[in-house]
């Protein structure tokens, strides 16, 4: 294995490097992706692909240097783990391993099993397709009625925040269990529906598994740039393009060419508008251990600030009660940073009063790479906070 | 606010020992962020009020283990995608943290918040003197911009002399 460094000096060279990104069978790991002329690109190349990559570059006259020679391949724990998990798919949602991180296919398979096991409670909706044409699935939990007031929860909008998708899977199972045992959210399901989108950014998620574990954005390519992806949490039509997002396509907070340019975002916008009766909207991220309400794009307080603050206090207290995990809470702009074009700013402005964002564990020790053994504790404590929000919504319908 | 100089912060901190959660130590610190965009590191003065736990034995054990390796240690992706760190690599991870502290200090402003996201790669370099040398590629996550960027850092370590960063290079241009 070697790590090659290329500093593209022309658009042709940039293009050649980009071509390499598309060749998935080479199993290249881009430590530093292409960002522009004169900026280095670092690629970790596994031994079997070395010749092909060098030939590709040399044929195009692209010079490269060998940054690291002979990268010893430590038995990659994670590769072994993934291999072990492709052996047998679990037979049902009781044998599914909630203590581990899963691939997209395993999660989609889980969703189908959950629906098959609980056809009177759970259904799967496809609300759109991603840039790379992956289905955008939402699970609907309903005991009947027509267009009941509903709660929306999404996880995984930023693909590298793996504890969120994993928690979403746990939440899905938990809802079903509560209903079966007539406890917990069973009472909420008597009068309300719950919508849960677990893999909100499937293209990004796939990319974190094949190429770059720390990829955040979507995988869209907009004309005029070699950089890929839009920050789906800056692409909503609330203060779009204002301070708190970047206009550079190479930035992690790139807002995109226009609001709702990303199908992952547009599909939710369309769903929310056509449903028309969503009363609470929770978008889940990691990390930092925060519970946030709008706004992120302006210092102006939302009219419901006091109530949202009180609900947050209660939710955070419930969360902490389980394992002592400490959370802070407040509006986005006063608690974390200024961010424009954000999800819950848009949903709040649509009239969804109970709009919240979570930043789950931890506070930086592992960050995005949270150990799998923390998945269940994280999901359990977060669920207590979610229940506070859901119950308050049910008891204060508007 | 100090006119023509910058912003000074007076801090009271409580440090928690990551390896011994019940152990805390109080500190005070003064941090001065300089005015202007000249990109100079903030001045930091720290006073530790109390004692830090002795790590003499563990240090010695680690030192001897690395010194006796036949082939230089090489590793990557610490933690791995699932957050795992093999126990034998835990000290390497901790040392990376120290190194990332240096990078954070050198690159901090009042509008940055850095965390070590992952040790992308580490290679031991055998030396003729008594120090251990590790060449790291560290991925640092900056919270406000959300960028994750690689930093090449060379760390020297010795049980008595502690850790020193001897070289540090940021993404793209040098540092």
From TrEMBL, chain A:
GO terms for cellular component: extracellular space. Its main location: secreted. The active site is at 359 (proton donor/acceptor). Its cofactor is Zn(2+). It is found in: Secreted. Its EC number is 3.4.17.1. Keywords: Carboxypeptidase, Disulfide bond, Hydrolase, Metal-binding, Metalloprotease, Protease, Secreted, Signal, Zinc, Zymogen. Residues 100-393 form the Peptidase M14 domain. GO terms for molecular function: metallocarboxypeptidase activity; zinc ion binding. Belongs to the peptidase M14 family. This is Carboxypeptidase A1. The lineage of its organism: Eukaryota, Metazoa, Chordata, Craniata, Vertebrata. The gene is Cpa1.
From TrEMBL, chain B:
GO terms for cellular component: extracellular space. It comes from the Eukaryota. The keyword NADP does not apply. PROSITE patterns: CYSTATIN_LXN. The keyword Cell membrane does not apply. Gene3D superfamilies: 3.10.450.10. Residues 1-57, 74-175 form the Cystatin LXN-type domain. InterPro entries: CYSTATIN_LXN, Cystatin_sf, Latexin. One of its GO terms (molecular function) is metalloendopeptidase inhibitor activity. Keywords: Protease inhibitor, Repeat. SUPFAM superfamilies: Cystatin/monellin (SSF54403). PANTHER family: LATEXIN. Belongs to the protease inhibitor I47 (latexin) family. This is LXN protein. It comes from Cinclus mexicanus. The lineage of its organism: Eukaryota, Metazoa, Chordata, Craniata, Vertebrata.
């Amino acid at each position: 294995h070697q790590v090659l460094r290329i500093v593209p000096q022309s658009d042709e060279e940039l293009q050649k490097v980009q071509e390499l990104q598309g060749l998935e069978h080479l199993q290249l790991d881009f430590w530093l992706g292409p960002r522009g002329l004169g900026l280095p690109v670092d690629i970790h190349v596994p031994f079997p692909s070395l010749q092909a990559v060098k030939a590709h570059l040399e044929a195009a006259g692209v010079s490269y240097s060998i940054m690291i020679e002979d990268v010893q391949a430590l038995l990659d724990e994670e590769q072994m783990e993934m291999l072990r998990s492709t052996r047998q798919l679990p037979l049902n949602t009781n044998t599914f391993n909630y203590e581990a991180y899963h691939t997209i296919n395993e999660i989609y398979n889980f969703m189908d099993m959950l629906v098959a096991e609980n056809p009177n409670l759970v259904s799967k909706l496809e609300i759109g397709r991603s840039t790379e044409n992956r289905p955008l699935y939402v699970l609907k939990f309903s005991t009947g009625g027509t267009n009941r007031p509903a709660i929306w929860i999404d996880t995984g909008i930023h693909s590298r925040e793996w504890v969120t998708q994993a928690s979403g899977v746990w939440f899905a199972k938990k809802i079903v269990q509560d209903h079966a045992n007539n406890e917990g959210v069973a009472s909420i399901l008597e009068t309300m529906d719950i919508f849960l989108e677990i893999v909100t950014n499937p293209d990004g998620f796939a990319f974190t598994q094949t190429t770059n574990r720390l990829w955040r954005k979507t995988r869209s390519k907009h004309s005029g740039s070699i950089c890929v992806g839009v920050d789906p949490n800056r692409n909503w039509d609330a203060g779009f393009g204002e301070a708190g997002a970047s206009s550079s396509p190479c930035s992690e907070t790139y807002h995109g060419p226009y609001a709702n340019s990303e199908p992952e975002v547009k599909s939710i916008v369309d769903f929310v508008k056509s449903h028309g009766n969503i009363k609470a909207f929770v978008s889940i991220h990691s990390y930092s251990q925060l519970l946030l309400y709008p706004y992120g794009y302006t210092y102006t307080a939302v009219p419901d600030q006091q109530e949202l603050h009180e609900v947050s206090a209660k939710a955070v207290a419930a969360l902490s009660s389980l394992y002592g995990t400490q959370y802070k809470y407040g509006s986005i702009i006063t608690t974390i940073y200024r961010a424009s074009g954000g999800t819950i700013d848009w949903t709040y402005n649509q009239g969804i009063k109970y709009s919240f964002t979570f930043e789950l564990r931890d506070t930086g020790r592992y960050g995005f790479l949270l150990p799998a053994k923390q998945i269940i504790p994280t999901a359990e404590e977060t669920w207590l906070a979610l229940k506070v929000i859901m119950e308050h919504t049910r008891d204060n319908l508007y | 606010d100090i006119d023509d100089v910058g912003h000074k912060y007076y801090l009271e901190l409580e440090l928690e020992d990551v390896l011994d959660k019940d152990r805390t130590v109080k500190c005070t610190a003064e941090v001065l962020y300089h005015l202007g965009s000249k990109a100079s590191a903030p001045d930091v003065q720290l006073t530790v009020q109390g004692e830090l736990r002795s790590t003499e034995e563990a240090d010695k054990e680690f030192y001897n283990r690395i010194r006796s390796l036949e082939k230089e240690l090489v590793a990557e992706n610490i933690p791995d995608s699932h957050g795992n760190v093999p126990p034998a690599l835990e000290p390497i991870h901790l040392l990376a943290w120290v190194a990332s502290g240096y990078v954070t200090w050198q690159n901090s402003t009042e509008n940055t918040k850095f965390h070590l996201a992952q040790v992308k790669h580490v290679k031991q370099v055998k030396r003729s003197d008594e120090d251990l040398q590790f060449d790291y590629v560290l991925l640092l996550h900056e919270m406000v911009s959300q960028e994750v960027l690689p930093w090449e850092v060379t760390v020297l370590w010795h049980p008595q002399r502690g850790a020193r960063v001897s070289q540090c290079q940021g993404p793209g241009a040098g540092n």
